[in-house]
Amino acid sequence: MKLTVLIHCPDQSGIIRSVTTYIHQQTGNVVYLDQHVDKQAGVFFMRLKCEFEQELDLVDFKKGFATELAEPFDMEWDAYTDEYQPKMAIFVSKYNHCLYDLLSRYNSGELSVEIPFILSNHKDLEYVAEQFNIPFFHIPVTKETKAEAEDQQLELLKKYKVDFIVLARYMQIVSPKVIDQFPQRIINIHHSFLPAFAGAKPYHAAFERGVKIIGATSHYVTEDLDAGPIIEQDVTTVSHTHSVKDFIAKGRDLERIVLSRAVQLHVARKTMVYNNKTVIFS
Amino acid sequence: MKLTVLIHCPDQSGIIRSVTTYIHQQTGNVVYLDQHVDKQAGVFFMRLKCEFEQELDLVDFKKGFATELAEPFDMEWDAYTDEYQPKMAIFVSKYNHCLYDLLSRYNSGELSVEIPFILSNHKDLEYVAEQFNIPFFHIPVTKETKAEAEDQQLELLKKYKVDFIVLARYMQIVSPKVIDQFPQRIINIHHSFLPAFAGAKPYHAAFERGVKIIGATSHYVTEDLDAGPIIEQDVTTVSHTHSVKDFIAKGRDLERIVLSRAVQLHVARKTMVYNNKTVIFS
Amino acid sequence: MKLTVLIHCPDQSGIIRSVTTYIHQQTGNVVYLDQHVDKQAGVFFMRLKCEFEQELDLVDFKKGFATELAEPFDMEWDAYTDEYQPKMAIFVSKYNHCLYDLLSRYNSGELSVEIPFILSNHKDLEYVAEQFNIPFFHIPVTKETKAEAEDQQLELLKKYKVDFIVLARYMQIVSPKVIDQFPQRIINIHHSFLPAFAGAKPYHAAFERGVKIIGATSHYVTEDLDAGPIIEQDVTTVSHTHSVKDFIAKGRDLERIVLSRAVQLHVARKTMVYNNKTVIFS
Amino acid sequence: MKLTVLIHCPDQSGIIRSVTTYIHQQTGNVVYLDQHVDKQAGVFFMRLKCEFEQELDLVDFKKGFATELAEPFDMEWDAYTDEYQPKMAIFVSKYNHCLYDLLSRYNSGELSVEIPFILSNHKDLEYVAEQFNIPFFHIPVTKETKAEAEDQQLELLKKYKVDFIVLARYMQIVSPKVIDQFPQRIINIHHSFLPAFAGAKPYHAAFERGVKIIGATSHYVTEDLDAGPIIEQDVTTVSHTHSVKDFIAKGRDLERIVLSRAVQLHVARKTMVYNNKTVIFS
After folding, report:
1. How many angstroms away from the CA of D20 is the closest CA of chain A?
2. Is the Cβ of C195 closer than 8 Å to some Cβ of chain D?
3. Looking at the 3D structure of chain C, how many domains does it have?
4. CATH number of the domain where residue A241 is located
5. Do A211 and B234 touch (CB under 8 A)?
6. Which residues form the active site (chains A, B, C, D) (predicted)?
């Protein structure tokens, strides 16, 4: 059995030694350990993988961890078994490139998740869901029906026990009602190199400014629009020969890859959030 | 004799044909031609190199060009001989990395310029000027003396017939008085991926925001601070393991290379400015 | 009507002027022109787009071009109308990532081609063809049946009037019999940064060598294995933390994007081949 | 007092726990720990930084470490204090770009080393050494005098207690006589993306092959030419518009930055070598 443990706590002496000793006592063997100290904030972060030759009683392990480590060191922490495949809902609108990218990776076995459903405020991409045999829910959103639509969304998310949501170019602002239920568990792709060109029409804005590089940014969604903790970014060069349309086409390739990388980091439990920033373990 | 011709004018039929025909009539041979049309703005840009086997009377060539082409096509244009080495003044403050980079390229023959002098508001980098045997002028700038200091700068720029100025981390805002004398001929390096983190302390701001990529931007200086036409940008990845100090160190390498590339593009007459954007010929 | 003209010929005086003059005589307007001179080889390359307000008689245009330009300047050339969508056959084996990438771009309208069929030596990817409603032909290949299999392939290629072939991780060596029918019209993706690690198992070889960067290369297929003219390459960083499996996973993302870019360059008629190298117009 | 500890040993249970416990017993506090397991080879690697509030007796610390940890776990290891600045000799021939880059970083305080001397088989760069006030030794090398020249080199290296050597475009093959004295302590820069284009004239070879990306590689020197463990690589794009001369100019920028990064990794004790590959800690 394999376990991934994520920890953060006030920086102090003896954490690594105590944790590795506890795991040893539980007959586990540490096979990976990465840690980071944010000196400014005084916070210690650790990601650790351990293997247990004998069957592990996870409840007991966690109870002991809580008493012997989490409490004295004041830790926020969690432990995940490798077997569990998190349930990922995908929200889309009309663009299919990110959706296709996620689904083809899912189909190839690159993405260790279950996809209980795809949800959209439009019907345009229903055919893609059908191609991949995944349930599709159409929940239109207007100013007037937004509250009600989000209730329906929450109901579905609950019913299907969704662990996290991917906004694969979902062109609606998600309200706090949903965000609060999925803190650091909604992943968005923004089509610019944030914080440059936050908001709508970033490729147009980039074109206007005459930049030589455009980007895409994947981040956890917070109430502050386009300002959540950044998980992954990438860029590509552009020149005066490119029109806004070219920016958009080049950007699609960025959006695809940046979103997929962010999702994979999240699924592999390699992300931790602190102070609106991420620690991304390697 | 080699000539580089830069043209922009309203887009219309027959420009390439007319220009190449004129050059042919002058017994020249076009050895390179690159053009671009900004369809939104309706503007045609062209960069062209031609060789003349016989001695060319440049004054005559220009006169004919003006009458037969520039006037009917409503062109802004210029023609440069390859022999002339432009005179480049370098303004610095206390950081030496961009200065060293420019001077070592200059020394290796990578940069086809003359450097009549280095100017600074501090004495810190006088030793570098001495290492490379280049005149150094120290003109301190305070709020009170700024106007006077810029007069002294302008005097030196005039006296040494400076063609363009490179701000190699010159930590002073250049006022319109100087900019107006050197339109599109002052090159600055900004230590961020503009328009993200314009203004002071961009590395600190980038660190605070938790970006995964930092950049540097070289642009022509306009009255609008950090908002001039972008010549060149580049980026590098950062992670949670990097402190602000690391950002600054990694950024130095970007600043060096981005500024040097921009200077080389300018010197090679590969840049044109229109609508606060650049066309960069290859 | 829009026309794209590709030319290469011995470098000599007057080409641009003559071509633009001819197009003007045909009541066409040059809207884009890019040229390149390979000085070592003494060859001139040009890509040109022109628009005709009146209906153009393409046969007449070509006849005149041949007589007035191609013959005197000793040109290899062709002219393509923008309306024609080339027919692209895709050959695959068992990996689906490049196939999915091409098909999702095709579906999104990013790729201006027709896809008459997908062909494979295995049945594994038939389901993908079905998802996208594209005919799938299964032609197994063994040492003994290879000649016969290629006859079947050629028959299909002829029947469907295929213009060019994309080997989307087709794990068979294509023999001269097929290559000769499709010179510079078979595009392969090799999973290394050629010429490093040509041949089989490049990720394993890269891992063994301990490189810090891996790549992918798309090239036209020639009889010399993995040595054809390179169309596009890209790379990504790796480190000691990555296993061969990680190399392969990271490589998949490179292969996808590099192959798609190469296909798009080919479709847009932006590639020319000379001396086993490509000229790639922007 | 700060200590950096580097360890590699057969992978086994309990290493992290035992090491962190030992450091705790010595009243030290682990402030950074990074480890890596090469599963194929069954080798465990660790880099660790610890601080000691009280004065540490380094000899005692090392003695205890050897007995309690290194022996039972069969470790290869070393411990370095942060105060010591390694002595770096620079070997050059005629190109000055890498030398200038190293020296300007040294001058800016970016490089925590002492530079006892610069050595060359030519006199061309003596002036650079003079600019930076560093002793310069001219030791010509011919086929006949090579053995003798290397004896002189070894004498200088010994006299100045040199810790490691940087070949900053030193155009001579270093023989085993010198390599054996500086195993994993001679850093070379090769002007290609190794293993592509090993040997002489790599830019010419890259140009001939028509690659779209060129690179530079910094590696530890072994007896096998251009085949030592790779420390750092980087690449840049090229196109058909670039001549060999352009490749060389673009390559210079790569060589500079790749060599400097490799040197900095070495100086920071972030490199370990195993099986002709490097582990590069972050």
Report:
1. 5
2. yes
3. 2
4. 3.40.50.170
5. no
6. 226
Note whether B244 and B118 are same-domain residues.
yes
Note whether C64 and C124 are same-domain residues: no
Confidence check: pLDDT of A53 > 90:
no
- Pick B54 or D2 by higher pLDDT: D2
Cα separation values, A108 from B28, C124, C249, Å: 60, 12, 11
Instruction: Summarize pLDDT for C112-157 with one digit per residue, the tens.
Output: 999 999 999 999 999 999 999 999 999 999 999 999 999 999 999 9
Domain C-terminal end among D81, D110, D142: D81
Given CB atoms, is B257 within the 8 Å cutoff of chain A? no
Mean pLDDT of chain D: 95
Picking from C17, C45, C13, C37, the residue whose alpha carbon sits closest to that of residue B20 is C17
pLDDT tens per residue across span B144-177 = 999 999 999 999 999 999 999 999 999 999 999 9
Residue at a domain's end among B81, B109, B130: B81
Order of strands, sheet of C186-190, starting from the edge strand that comes earlier in the sequence: C136-138, C118-120, C88-92, C164-167, C186-190, C213-220, C230-237
Q: How far is D252 from chain C (nearest CA, A)?
A: 19
* List of chain A residues whose C-beta atoms are within 8 Å of the C-beta of residue D30: 16-17
Q: Measured between CB atoms, does C280 come within 8 Å of chain D? A: yes
CA-CA distance, D198 to D204, in Å (whole number)? 12
Q: Containing domain of residue D16, as a range?
A: 2-81
Q: At what angle do helices C244-267 and C202-209 cross, to 10 degrees?
A: 120
pLDDT digits (tens, 9 = 90+) for A236-278: 999 999 999 999 999 999 999 999 999 999 999 999 999 999 9
Catalytic residue numbers of C? 226
Residues B40 and B147 occupy one common structural domain: no
Per DSSP bridges, beta strands A213-220 and A186-190 are antiparallel
Looking at the structure, tell me whether residues B68 and B119 fall in a common domain.
no
Q: Taking 90 as the threshold, does the pLDDT of residue C53 lie above it?
A: no
**A92 shares a domain with A59:** no
Establish whether D101 is a catalytic residue.
Answer: no
Token pair belonging to B272:
């044109």
In this structure, the answer to whether residues A103 and A192 fall within a common structural domain is: yes
What's the pTM value of the predicted model, to 2 decimals? 0.95
Residues B256-279: what's their mean pLDDT?
97
B81: closest CA of chain D, how far (Å)? 21
Residue (of B197, B259, B267) closest to B230 by Cα position: B259
| Interchain proximity A276–B210, CB inside 8 Å | yes
Both tokens assigned to D194: 């190794």
**ipTM of the complex model:** 0.93
pLDDT at D108: 87
Compute the average pLDDT of residues D137-146.
95
pLDDT digits (tens, 9 = 90+) for A153-172: 999 999 999 999 999 999 99
What's the CA gap between C162 and C268, in Å, rounded?
16
Find the residue in C nearest to A240 (Cα): C282
C198 CB within 8 Å of a chain D CB: no
Task: For residues C164 and D86, give the distance between their C-alpha atoms in angstroms, rounded to a whole number.
Answer: 59
Same-domain pairing of D122 and D149: yes
- Hey, how many other C-beta atoms are within 10 angstroms of the C-beta on D127? 11
Site of tokens 């029409």: A201
Q: Which residues of B touch C35 (CB under 8 A)?
A: 32-34
Instruction: Kindly report the CATH number assigned to the domain that includes residue A36.
Output: 3.30.70.260
Q: Residues A153, A267: one domain?
A: yes
Write down the pLDDT at residue B199: 87
